[in-house]
Amino acid sequence: MFKKLLTWPVLLVLTATSPAFGQRQSPVPHQASEIEALVNKAAAVLKEQGSKAFGEFRKKGGPWRYADVYLFAMDMQGVVLLNAGHPNREGWDMLNERDADGKQFHVDLVEVVSKFGSGWVDYMFPRPGQAISTVKWSYVCGTRVEGVEALVGAGVYVD
User: Fold this and answer.
1) Which of 21, 75, 91, 115 lies 20 to 30 angstroms, CA to CA, from 53?
2) Cα–Cα distance list, 72 to 14, 18, 57, 89 (Å)
3) d(Cα 99, Cα 26) in Å, to the nearest integer?
4) Measured between alpha carbons, how far is 48 from 57 in angstroms, rounded to an integer?
5) Running DSSP on this structure, what letter comes out for residue 69?
6) What domains are defined for the chain?
7) CA end-to-end span of the chain, whole Å?
């Protein structure tokens, strides 16, 4: 029941009061609901199709990847299974990677899914094709990929 209550506006209220999050702009509600719907749908597809879905998830200009929005997936130990925007990250253990501000954001992504099943995390990350990091809010949801516990997510760059 608590998982149901921890929706985007509630999470924003919780994180907006934290010093680590207080100065970061968050996605607007229509962006948040769009990303949540995309990720929740992808989680269901992954449970059914496994990694066979990755090819569709990678296609630019399709329903899964458009503008700066793309899907990513990783197992609960931090190994990247899919990153449609940054495919060079796939297969790597990124659990202890830090963003430009020193935040171990993969740890936060795993923690949100472990504790709540889904939720929002903010961090600094470059847009595809760019080297400079900017604020990104990602929504992640727990799923299974070929029997392995995993998470899938997508985000919004806000600058």
Assistant:
1) 115
2) 25, 26, 9, 10
3) 17
4) 14
5) B
6) 2-157 (3.30.450.20)
7) 34
Strands (E), the chain: 71-75, 80-83, 118-126, 133-145, 148-157
Per-residue burial over 99-116, b if 16 or more Cβ lie within 10 Å, else e, is beeebbbbbbbbebbeeb
Amino acid at 58: R
Burial of 97 from C-beta contacts in 10 A (0-12 / 13-18 / 19+): middle
In the DSSP assignment, the letter for residue 123 is: E
d(CA 150, CA 143): 5
pTM for this one? 0.83
pLDDT at residue 16 greater than cutoff 80 = no
Q: State the pLDDT confidence band at 53, using cuts at 50, 70 and 90.
A: very high
**What is the average pLDDT score of the chain?**
86
